[in-house]
């Protein structure tokens, strides 16, 4: 892969999002309006699905940082993850709005019947399921984790939302007809899928954290009290400086996770297991590091904005509410801690951190 | 978007090979009883024998030119050696300042004669140096330095005092920031760095004991010390510029988040069998913070390698790094109990108390608690560092 290509994608993404994803679009989406133009702009630029000649998985992950910066109110992360899973399982990617169900409530099963393959189960946290043309599911064929894609017409949706008002639906299928079924490639497990889902949240959050720092800086430079911009006060500066390190730290971990993910794709099969393990470990680190960054940054961002930042009319809450939601989605820091600690216990802290 | 330069760095294979050499060396030394890991080893681990061994390995003055006893290695290779030594809690205190600060300063601003005279012994690990910046009334505000240089023939006479001089009682030399003229409008003028031979009878060194009872700090008094012309660094009056550059080196290294690594390792070891979710979350949070700091610090090493001067980035990482060190101590304080002869803290007591490493962990915790207050002060306080970050963010 070439970093310059990725750089170009990221720059283009900034342009596209700046034009098509302003705060009004985000605010309307929070009220339940599907931002059709935005989705079309993203799809038109080849941002929504992976492509042999276009967007790679790692490019897409970098792109999600930009999406997070603009509080993207469509299932972009889910669409990208869905197409990663389909590709890995050797299935084709359908047209239209795509999302994923990778948080099964129990152990959803596929059944091969005379009338075709049927799928039963219940999935929670399915982003924008109500809006999707297709939903890609993680299910099981016996004990083997599999991926399969179901058409909108076959699914029943119970609407739900996360803290940011983003659709997080529950989907229940009872013997729904599904298309092809593909197994997860070795050495992926169900946990790998959970890791990749978590990784999308790390990436989105890295961008959103950057945005609230920018908004806070701008506000501190403009808002005056006692005859000077509040950013001239040392106590305010200290809060913002602390936000800056949190942003930098999350970005550092996100980049580490990105590099490890990339390495796990590049590695020859004999060491794949180890490389994948390393990638999953860095993702767990990312999920855990995020917790502190979100706590510190959102607290300070709201504090510096005074009562202003606590209102619906001021747009920062689109970012901070998403951050609070993303911290929780696909496992919060308490949930991910054991994965981190197992490695520390096995190899010692320093060896785990240096990776050698 | 991003305001600071924090490019991801991938270490070259040569550096990773070197890491394995350093680990083998350290494991050997430890097995031979050459050292016992301690918290804050770059400050308290003053061990001339060990420094000399490192000198022989070629691990001091690594990036300096060979003609001055250096080894012409890359900044990233040096970085790896530093982080391995620190992570192991090895006693590197004797040569640390010379290698990190005083050698580079002489290399950048010193005369040819000074380079030839001082650098080779530093690189051998036999020449130890103190930092003479702080004074009783010049701490955070170094431009207030008063130690006074008065012209005397071709040289100078020095009177005044330095404070908090780490290790001065065991060092041969100090580089001191002194006042050679008026401060001027920007308060940065009239400062000059000079090399002082600490064995000069006109120098008095008085101990200031730490709260742990250790003798680390000193008060250094100059009773009309003669400073010959060839002991001045660069041009008289250039001191401010030199010292700010020096501080970027002082602040940017991995020692600012690795002081408590031996304690962190011990904590993970003694809690090996605890199922407690909240304990695990605390350990995971520390690890995730450490991993991020290391990536950021590595990227600073990368900037230095390319000849950049990452002042703001270094301030950011030092602030966060020292707060991290305090957190390691805090978590260990929550988990362990001191002085209970192996009876561990509430909640995890049985599992932890049964662990044979408990005594060592408690010793490391005691070191960390007693050294802790210094972490966020030395090399510039966190309040000052945040001011630098705020300036970098355009707030000042
Ligand atoms: C372990 C250790 C080793 C050291 N080794 C050396 C050494 O070898 N050589 C050497 O020269 N010095 C050394 N020092 C001294 C160190 O550099 C100073 O202690 C430090 O710069 C702070 O100065 P001060 O102690 O005079 O505190 P002060 O400057 O008096 O500060 C006191 C408090 O006021 C705050 N403060 C001051 N000014 C401001 C401001 N403008 N804005 C906001 N807050 C402010 C500070 O942050 C601090 O909290 C060492 C210190 C320690 C702890």
UniProtKB/TrEMBL annotation, chain A:
The keyword Oxidoreductase is annotated on this UniProt entry: yes
Classification via InterPro entries: AcylCo_DH-like_C, AcylCo_DH/oxidase_C, AcylCoA_DH/ox_N_sf, AcylCoA_DH/oxidase_NM_dom_sf
Domain Acyl-CoA dehydrogenase/oxidase C-terminal: 200-323
Cofactor(s) this protein cannot do without: FAD
Keywords noted in UniProt: FAD, Flavoprotein, Oxidoreductase
Protein family (similarity comment): Belongs to the acyl-CoA dehydrogenase family.
Record-linked PANTHER family: ACYL-COA DEHYDROGENASE, ACYL-COA DEHYDROGENASE FADE28
Protein name: Alkylation response protein AidB-like acyl-CoA dehydrogenase
Species, as recorded: Alicyclobacillus cycloheptanicus
TrEMBL record, chain B:
Keywords, ordered alphabetically: FAD, Flavoprotein, Oxidoreductase
Domain Acyl-CoA dehydrogenase/oxidase N-terminal: 13-125
Keyword ATP-binding attached: no
Cofactors that this protein relies on: FAD
Record-annotated Acyl-CoA dehydrogenase/oxidase C-terminal domain positions: 237-393
Domain Acyl-CoA oxidase/dehydrogenase middle: 130-225
PANTHER family: ACYL-COA DEHYDROGENASE (PTHR43292), ACYL-COA DEHYDROGENASE FADE34 (PTHR43292:SF4)
Family: Belongs to the acyl-CoA dehydrogenase family.
Protein's name according to its UniProt entry: Alkylation response protein AidB-like acyl-CoA dehydrogenase
Source organism per UniProt: Alicyclobacillus cycloheptanicus
